[in-house]
């Protein structure tokens, strides 16, 4: 058994442990969940330390027959791309458990069910990034819907049932399109060398496809991933899900699960359909720019703090998608790094916003006036998280956003220039709510709100530390990301544009 498989099994072991703990022993349930997620995070860090940065092939691989009659295998492995996203998932999960210590209270089911769902979801997050068999990826991709559906519908607030159903329907629609494309790939592979779902072998199948076939199969995958990302105009499920879910659920949803969409664009759309990727790139770049600006405008007008964070994420995912399809090494590296950085900045925003909502019993931004005087630690935590979302120099998001814009400008200068307006709008959608919520006179009802307790400080502290550390020193991640980014661009048949002599004249 590979260390990667063991990593994926550990959360399931924790879930089984919780299952045998009596339901009334809520504290033991929470401690078991926290201990399990910390162990998983430590194991993932050890795997990262043993990862060969110079090797772009899959590492920690394991393959075993699953359904041999159809050529389906349990096949897993990680490269720089999947390793970074697995790290993101396993580092955020214990933070979510610790930060949302009381989120299971008042839900439709017990705390046991809540934490079992969290741990099962963690296994699926590891599996979806590690799968190198396309059918295995699809199964996990669809199975992830189940715990998220129950986390939103069972423990959320407001119109949680409607939000959960909307999330499910959008995701199932995308999954069906992907399944159709997977079946198409299987048929093509069976006619050209033997039926397989192995991603390495399938990456050669484009040589046997007509341009029309490749375009159709590409769209099946891309639409599924664009829904998950979420990319305009397939984003409408996200604000409802984010607003209705618990803060912890929203952290995992926006911070990790949505990255499956952009991950899939790189892993499957680009590698399996290189010609179709080039064909649709101009359209996708336009959609990305629209997402950047549209999400920013919606965020400026938001009155609910959780919806505001969701709208900012639509804008951020526009940047990530633009970096992916810029087809430059810088843009690609920036996009992958952006996935990681966005996960932590969004986590910080949602975690602190959740504490603000729990204290004030309201999610309306105007109700949080004057928090800097009453709860300075909580206010400063929200401010730093907001500045990271704004991509302030010295914080992690700045590096990734800069790389995306520079990488895009070298090939699509108009798109890069338009995208920079998203930065200006970001200043508005972050600074306006910061001013309303943190500064000014204290809103009646906020005078006696408690500041962060020790548990809450321990939860948000590591997130803010990572945001600041990667702002000054992103090399540990870029050393892992850059080789795989260069390999993807080379496999697409692109070379980074070389500045001409007239460029500076």
Indicate the percent of residues in helices.
Answer: over 70%
Q: How widely separated are the two ends?
A: 59 Å
SS class: mainly alpha
Q: What letter string, H or E per element, gives the SSE order?
A: HHEEHHHHHHHHHHHHHHHHHHH
Radius of gyration: 22 Å
The description of the largest β-sheet is: 2 strands, antiparallel
Q: What ranges have pLDDT less than 50 throughout 5 or more consecutive residues?
A: 501-505
Number of helices: 21
Strand order of the largest sheet: 1-2
What fraction of residues sit in β-strands?
A: under 5%
**Gross morphology:** globular
What oligomerization state is this entry in?
Answer: single chain
Average predicted local confidence, pLDDT: 84
Instruction: Write down how many β-strands occur, each being a DSSP E stretch of 2 or more residues.
Output: 2
Condensed summary:
By secondary structure, the protein is mainly alpha-helical. It is built from 21 helices and two strands. It has a domain at 273-496.
Task: Identify the notable features of this structure and list them briefly.
505 residues, mainly alpha, two-stranded antiparallel sheet, 21 helices, 2 strands, 72% helix, globular
């Amino acid at each position: 058994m590979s260390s990667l498989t063991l990593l994926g099994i550990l959360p399931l072991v924790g879930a089984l442990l919780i299952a045998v703990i009596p339901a009334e022993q809520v504290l033991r349930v929470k401690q078991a969940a926290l201990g399990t997620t910390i162990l998983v995070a430590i194991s993932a860090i050890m795997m990262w330390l043993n990862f060969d940065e110079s090797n772009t092939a899959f590492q920690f691989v394991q393959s075993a027959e699953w359904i041999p009659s159809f050529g389906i295998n349990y096949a897993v492995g990680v490269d720089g791309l999947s390793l970074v996203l697995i790290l993101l998932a396993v580092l955020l999960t214990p933070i979510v458990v610790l930060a949302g210590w009381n989120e299971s209270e008042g839900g439709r089911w017990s705390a046991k069910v809540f934490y079992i769902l969290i741990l099962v979801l963690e296994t699926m997050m590891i599996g979806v990034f590690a799968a190198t068999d396309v059918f295995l990826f699809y199964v996990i991709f669809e199975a992830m819907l189940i715990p998220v559906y129950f986390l939103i519908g069972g423990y959320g607030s407001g119109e949680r049932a409607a939000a959960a159903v909307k999330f499910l329907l959008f995701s199932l629609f995308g999954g069906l399109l992907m399944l159709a494309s997977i079946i198409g790939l299987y048929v093509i592979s069976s006619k050209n060398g033997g039926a397989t779902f192995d991603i390495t072998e399938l990456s050669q199948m484009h040589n046997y496809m007509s341009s029309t076939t490749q375009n159709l199969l590409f769209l099946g995958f891309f639409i599924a991933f664009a829904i998950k990302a979420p990319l305009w105009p397939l984003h409408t499920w996200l604000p409802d899900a984010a607003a209705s879910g618990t803060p912890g659920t929203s952290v995992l949803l926006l911070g990790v699960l949505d990255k499956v969409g952009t991950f899939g664009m790189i892993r499957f759309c680009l590698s399996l359909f290189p010609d179709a990727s080039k064909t649709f790139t101009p359209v996708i770049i336009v959609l990305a720019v629209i997402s950047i600006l549209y999400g920013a405008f919606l965020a400026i007008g938001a009155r609910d703090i959780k919806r505001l964070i969701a709208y900012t994420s639509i804008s951020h995912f526009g940047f990530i998608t633009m970096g992916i399809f810029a087809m430059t090494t810088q843009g690609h590296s920036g996009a992958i790094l952006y996935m990681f950085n966005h996960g932590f900045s969004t986590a910080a925003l949602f975690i602190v916003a959740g504490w603000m909502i729990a204290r004030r019993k309201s999610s309306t931004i105007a109700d949080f006036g004057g928090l800097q005087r009453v709860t300075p630690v909580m206010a400063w935590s929200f401010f730093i998280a907001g500045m990271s979302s704004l991509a302030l120099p010295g914080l992690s998001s700045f590096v990734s956003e800069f790389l995306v814009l520079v990488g895009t400008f070298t090939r699509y200068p108009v798109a890069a220039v338009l995208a920079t307006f998203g930065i200006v709008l970001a200043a508005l959608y972050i600074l306006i709510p910061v001013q309303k919520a943190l500064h000014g006179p204290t809103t009646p009802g906020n005078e006696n709100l408690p500041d962060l307790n020790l548990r809450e400080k321990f939860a948000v502290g590591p997130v803010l530390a990572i945001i600041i550390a990667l702002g000054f020193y992103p090399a540990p991640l870029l050393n892992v990301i850059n080789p795989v980014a260069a390999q993807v661009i080379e496999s697409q048949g692109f070379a980074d544009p070389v500045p001409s002599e007239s460029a500076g004249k």
